[in-house]
Amino acid sequence: xxxxxxTEQAELEGLITSARQGxxxxxxxxxxxxxxxxxxxxxxxxxxxxxxxxVLRVTGIEPEADLAFGALTQLLxxxxxxxxxxxxxxxxxxxxxxxxxxxxxxxxxxxxxxVLTLLADLAEEGPVLCLVDDAQWLDDAxxxxxxxxxxxxxxxxVAMVFATREDGFAAPGLTELRPSRLDGGSAxxxxxxxxxxxxxxxxxxxxxxxxxxxxxxxxxxxxxxxxRQPHLQVADRVxxxxxxxxxxxxxxxxxxxxxxxxxxxxxxPLQLEAAQTLGVGLDDLEEAERAGLxxxxxxxxxxxxxxxxxxxxxxxxxxxxxxxxxxxxEVAKTPDCRAHHLPAATMEPDAGVAAELAAAAERTASxxxxxxxxRLYEQAARLGPDVRQQxxxxxxxxxxxxxxxxxxxxxxxxxxxxxxxxxxxxxxxxTMARAAAMFELGQEKQAVHLLQERAxxxxxxxxxxxxxxxxxxxxFTGDEGAVSAAARKLAALGTPDPMAEGLSHxxxxxxxxxxxxxxxxxxTSSDTERALYTGMIIxxxxxxxxxxxxxxxxxxxxxxxxxxxxxxxxLAQTQVWAGLHRDAEASVAEAVGIACDGGxxxxxxxxxxxxxxxxxxxxxxDRCRRLVGEAPAAxxxxxEAVLGLLELSLxxxxxxxxxxxxxxxxxxxxAAVLLSxxxxxxxxxxxxxxxxxxxxxxxxxxxxxxxSRQPWAQAVALRCRALTSDDESLYLEALRLHAQGGRPFEHxxxxxxxxxxxxxxxxxxxxxxxxxxxxxxxxxxxxxxxVERARSELHATGETPRTAHPAxxxxxxxxxxxxxxxAATGHxxxxxxxxxxxxxxxxEYHLYKAYPKLGVSSRxxxxxxxxx
Length: 868
Fold this sequence. Notes:
Layout lengths: L5 H15 L4 E6 L6 H14 L3 E6 L10 H7 L11 H10 L12 H14 L4 E6 L6 H13 L5 E7 L10 E3 L6 H10 L4 H11 L3 H11 L11 H14 L3 H13 L4 H10 L8 H5 L3 E4 L2 E4 L2 H9 L3 H14 L3 H11 L5 H16 L3 H14 L3 H17 L3 H12 L9 H13 L3 H12 L4 H18 L2 H13 L5 H10 L3 H14 L3 H11 L2 H17 L6 H14 L3 H17 L3 H18 L2 H9 L6 H14 L3 H12 L7 H5 L1 H10 L7 H14 L2 H15 L2 H11 L5 H17 L3 H18 L2 H13 L17 H11 L4 H8 L3 H15 L14
Parallel strand pairs: 1-4, 1-5, 2-3, 3-4
Antiparallel strand pairs: 6-7
Helix pairs in contact: 1-2, 3-6, 4-5, 5-6, 7-8, 8-9, 9-10, 10-14, 11-12, 11-14, 11-15, 12-15, 15-16, 16-17, 17-18, 18-19, 19-20, 19-21, 20-21, 21-22, 21-23, 22-23, 23-24, 24-25, 25-26, 26-27, 26-37, 27-28, 27-29, 28-29, 29-30, 29-31, 30-31, 30-43, 31-32, 31-33, 32-33, 33-34, 34-36, 36-37, ...
């Protein structure tokens, strides 16, 4: 019986009930050691099994926290016969976890998608409860796919519960439940059940602080005793109690307990093999069993509580721990298991051991368990006697840490490697890894400086690669000198780079020379990533969107989930320019979800910048300012442009103009986003009757538009000239160019300004058509402040405009819109699920929710709808 847990039980019961009704959910039970998390999971498992749910259980094991896929193997082992039913790449990913196939080169997130599909397939036969205990000790390669699946559950009938201690196992986005300490009444009832004498109860309750495990242990230890233990944290006092109990065991029993704790998995045959080499055996466990500290059966060895294992290990002398790990390494059945024990068994440099660890790291990295691979490479470097090998292994460790979404760890590893490098002989691989880590950590300027400094010392091919990367980083930070230096050095190396040279001209506002170079690069480059950024810089929205969509499709087809956030960010930005705000929000939501799974917090802030622009257009001030405020320093110019548009949208022309002028005087003054904000600056100046403040941004905009030759840019430039010159022919020419397509928000703004000009010219009849067209576009985009501005102008012409109703798709969530569009083109639920990294049942759930919003009842009717 559980005491004082009615709230927690109700929460778990609700999760299980939802799963029985076909809904999914995930919950994190977080609390200190001994608070009763495992007891709650036991209760949930018993109740779920009685109701017919299939219960899967995984437990993190402290000695296996750095063993790749250790916990996930527990989950998959009894389900191996179901793997072949998964899509091919997903089946291969899970077989790689079990060691059946290394599946080299796969994306690390593909394993998470495979776990999601596997759980969803199981739920087709009935609801599933997946329990993960001691999640703070999950290895990263197991934690990532389990969390990936948990965040994407919706309508499968799967419930997931993670139990973890206070520290470790970050699970942002999942609901948390924190069990409280037992109140006095519940604690008294528990002690009464344990037959603790009433005279001791108050003292034990006070000493335990309401921690259930402490109540049990302190009550057992204090029967017939008086006085209190020293003042320590409750968990530390419980651990101290276990150490004392283990200390009273015979020496041979303590050694067997140490073997069991160091081995960790409860593999009795393996433990006995190691024990034999140390002169102990199965009989020596009897005293630990009699003391109630361990349980031994044919299926394995288990400690009564994980803290008992911790006490058995930490209480042993270092020499004895080394001997035990050496014995376990000698009897290990696989090279990876041996590699798991070797670092703890080796105190001095050993070339042979280091080579084994490096080989294990390579195998582990090939299975995309990058965090574990980084640790193995680091351990190899610690034990390797050759300095050059140490540098190489630490470089690979840093690269693995980056691939695993841990730039902070990568930076530390790279710095350690650099301390071993001879002055004047930097390692190119190491330099690139360190610079990439700096950039991800927001140290963009330091990354640029490092790359340019080291490029001079590297061979020409490697130096050129550093310079190209450095030029891109420098563009984002607005470092004009660094971009120009990179372009000069690349030319001097005989490898001129049109992108770097073009960016250097743009940084000096020489658009006539810079933009043609970038256009050339975009049309000829095979470097998709750089081409995407080039397309955004020059404003070639159609080409950039096509490139981004093709790259997203390629990533989906090949299961390259980890590459998607960056590409989806570019796609989302072009979707905003194209007026596809709902599509952009769907792209942003997916990109943020994957970036969150990968720990890419810096990337999340950049991605959310796209949503900030949508919020500015829609006049959502709170959301816009929050998203801009969360962005990194390198986003400053973009953030100022977004806030300038927001303030213009809300009619705060003075703030908008002051902000944009200040941004133009900052380091990012020639960023493409500020050039695209020049129309906002010009309009704000005109609205304030200060046309002199519009002259410089107008000059820049016209020069940019002429050099870019993008119709939308030329149209906007003409509009701004009309705004400052009162020449209607410029409006008419701008509208002609707008008709060629691109940037509907800007097209509608031109229509609005033309309509306003016509009304002021006392031509209300002529004004109504452009004003109506503008209002319809603004309504479709959800640009509420602009709708009201157009409506006010129409009122001023003597017309009462009808309320503009948003299209039905505006009612859909981003995920629903994505699913509906794919379904409308004939994709099956399983195909949609594979593309969007969902389960087929969740796809059906989204369709079910979308149908009434669209006024349809089946897939067949979707193809007849306008889903733009």
